[in-house]
Amino acid sequence: MWKLKTIRDHIALKPEPGSFTAEGESARWSNKDLDPVLQENKKWEWYHVGGFWIAEGFNISQLETASSAVALGLNPGLAIVACLVGNLLVTIPTCSSAYIGSKFGLNFPVLSRASFGLRGAYVAMVIRGVVCVIWMGVQSSVGGNAVRCMIEAIWPSFKHWHQDALPESAAISAADLLCFSIFWIAQLPFLFLTINALRWMFIIKIVIMPFFGVALFTWALTAAHGWGPLFDMPTRISGGWTVGYAFCSTITAAISSNATFAINMSDITRFAHDRHRSWLAQLMLPVCITLTELLGAVMAASSQVIYGELQ
User: Where are the transmembrane segments (predicted)?
Assistant: First the structure.
C-alpha cells in the first residue's frame, strides 16, 4: 500500500491555496484554479474569443453534422437551414455562459455549485469529465483515420499491414489501432497548455484552416459542375423517417455539436480582457459554424454527384 501511496503522491495535482481558504482540505473549495481570474491574467481579447469560433468551425464534427443530414436524404439547402436553426438556438445559452464567465471570472466547477451545491457540484463535474473522455476518444478516432490516410498516401503498402492480426469481432484493424495510438500520443503535450497559451493555437488554426476549407469548397463545386446539380437534388428520406423528423434530428445534432460550450464557455471567457466585447463575440458561433456546415453539405452532395454515392 505504501507504494501506491507514493505513486499517488507523485501524480496527484496539489492545488495552490486560494484567496478565501487555507491549505489542506479547504483548498478544494477555493484555490488558484477556482478563484476569479485576476485582471492581469486576462489576456484573451475579443478577437481571440471570436477567432475561437472560426477554429471550432473547422472541426470535423461540424462537417459531419451537415454531411450526415445530406446522407439522411435532406436537400443540401434544407440541411443548412436545419443546422442554422440549431446553431441559433445553442447560441442563446452560450452567450449567457460567456457573459457570466467574463463578468465574474468564474469557471464551470464553481458555477455548478449554484445549482448542485458545494458537494453536489462534484456530480456535475464527473459527468462533464466523462463526456470529455468520450469526446476526446471520438476526436482521436477521427484523427487516427487522418493519420492512416497520410501514411497510406506515402507508403501504399501500409493498406495491407498486419491485415489479419486482429479478429473481425474486434471491429478495428491493427493499422487503425496503430494510427489511433500515434495521434493520441501526438496530442498529449497539448494537454499541458494553459487557457491563455491555447489562444495562440487557435490563432494558428484560423490562419491555416480557411485556406484548406476554400480549397475543398472550390474543388467540390468545380467537380460537381457548380451549385445547380447540388441544390437541385430532391429530398428523399429513407428508413421510414418523415422530412420533419429528419429536419428536427439535424437541428438536435447541430445543437449537440456545441452544447458543451453552452454550459462551460465561461471557462474561456473568464480570461477575456474586455468582458463586454468578449461575450458579444459569441455571435460568431452561428456564422462560423454554419459556414463550415455549408462546406460539409456541399462536399457530401458533391460526392454523390461525382461518385454516384455519398462518401
Answer: 121-138, 170-195, 202-222, 242-263, 283-307
This prediction has a pTM of 0.83
Number of H helices, E strands in the chain: 13, 0
How many folded domains does the chain comprise? 1
The answer to whether residue 285 is domain-embedded is yes
Neighbours of 203 (CB within 10 A): 16
What CATH number is attached to the domain comprising 245?
1.10.4160.10
CA distance linking residue 131 with residue 288, whole number of Å? 24
> Would residue 25 count as lying in a domain?
no
Q: Is 198 among the domain residues?
A: yes
- What's the CA gap between 236 and 297, in Å, rounded? 15
Q: What is the pLDDT of residues 174-200, one digit of tens each?
A: 888 999 999 999 998 888 888 888 888
| b/e 151-162 (16+ beta carbons within 10 angstroms → b) | bbeeeeebeeee
Domain membership of residue 121 as a residue range: 42-307
